[in-house]
Amino acid sequence: MSVLIKGKELSEKIVENIAQEVKNYEKKPGLTVIIVGDNPASRVYVNKKKTTAEKAGFNSAVIELPEDVSQQELETHIDVLNKEDTVDGILVQLPLPKHISTYDILERIKPEKDVDGFHPINVGRLVIGLKPYAVSCTPFGIIKLLEENNIEIEGKHAVVIGRSNIVGKPVASLLLNRNATVTVCHSKTASLRRICMQADILVAAVGIAKFVKADWVKPGAVVIDVGINRTEEGKLVGDVDFEEVSKKAGYITPVPGGVGPMTIAMLLANTLELFKLHNNL
Ligand code: NDP
User: Fold this and answer.
1) CATH number of the domain residue 148 falls in
2) Domain-located, residue 281
3) Does the CB atom of residue 99 touch ligand 1 within 6 A?
4) pLDDT class of 164 with cuts at 50, 70, 90
5) Number of domains the chain is built from
6) 209-251: pLDDT as tens digits
7) Which of 164, 183, 242, 270 to mutate to test the pocket of ligand 1 (most atoms within 8 A of CB)?
8) Is 210 a residue of the active site?
9) Do residues 102 and 165 share a domain?
């Protein structure tokens, strides 16, 4: 049976430490989240971000905009927040409605307030090995989980399934920057199972329930499950067949309670860093 990598406990510790640090400051870190439209999943995520930020003593605000908001109107909100001294981090909850250009919106946020690390400047800095103002939260959380569990990255073969801008690509860059040998797989990858079998560290960010089976996994491998999928019965499951794979892997993250909670903890960590940058602390 594998060792469980418990993201829930680590994330609570990180949030608690952040809350303790924030108590020392007279001014408080400010996080503003913009949500467009009525996507129920986005609402759940935004509420969770707001309540956790408040728990840590941040000034947290949510701007709710209607589904038919124009590109220009949304950009105007961002321009105002970019100039607002009390706002350290700006997050636009994705996905955005189809008539909005997501790339233009993400690029509109000042890189120094881009708490999600999605601005091309922050992505570029990450890729060339310079410190970004913020590192994309889920990939950053994955690295923290590996580090806190004393899992060696250098020299290991890391296989990442998924090449999204939100998870796959940034986690691949972070692993590469830490001297892993990285293979990135996607829907057109040939012999996926064979490649996964070579992984010392396997990161699954696919979006298909129980996609990774035990015979894809090398005995003793570290398996990081990023997926959040709902079964027909309403149960939350990852991209990895946990029941099977946990008998073979060395380490594995559960879903829920693995990578998910780390995403919000790293969002707060990023906001705190930007707050310190803005206030020369
Ligand atoms: P995307 O849909 O943006 O990307 C999925 C990736 O998986 C794509 O690169 C796609 O390839 C690849 N893929 C799809 N089907 C296959 C296949 N059959 N074989 C190999 N690769 C395949 O998803 P995200 O990266 O945004 O999210 C991935 C998962 O992680 C989702 O379940 C999501 O809910 C979850 N998630 C969890 C977070 C957390 O906090 N825990 C945060 C963000 C996401 P191609 O590029 O060729 O289409």
Assistant:
1) 3.40.50.720
2) no
3) no
4) very high
5) 2
6) 999 999 999 999 999 999 999 999 989 999 999 999 999 999 9
7) 164
8) no
9) no
229 and 190, same structural domain?
Answer: yes
Q: How far is the CA of 207 from the centre of ligand 1 (A)?
A: 5
Residue 1 has pLDDT above 90, yes or no: no
> Per the domain annotation, does 115 fall within a domain?
no
Which domain covers residue 185, as residue numbers? 137-260
pLDDT, tens digit (0-9, with 9 covering 90-100), for 148-158: 999 999 999 99
**134 CB near ligand 1 (under 6 Å):** no
Q: Does the residue 240 lie in any domain?
A: yes
Cis peptide before 95 (omega within 30 of 0): yes
Nearest CA to ligand 1 atom 48: 187
Is there a domain that residue 47 lies in? yes
* Model confidence pLDDT, tens digit, residues 67-103: 999 999 999 999 999 999 999 999 999 999 999 999 9
6 is a catalytic site residue: no
Pocket test of ligand 1: the residue of 135, 228, 255 to mutate, having most ligand atoms within 8 Å of its CB, is 228
For residues 200 and 146, state if they share a domain. Answer: yes
Based on the fold, state whether residues 102 and 166 are members of the same structural domain. no
So what's the pLDDT on residue 214?
98
pLDDT at 42: 94
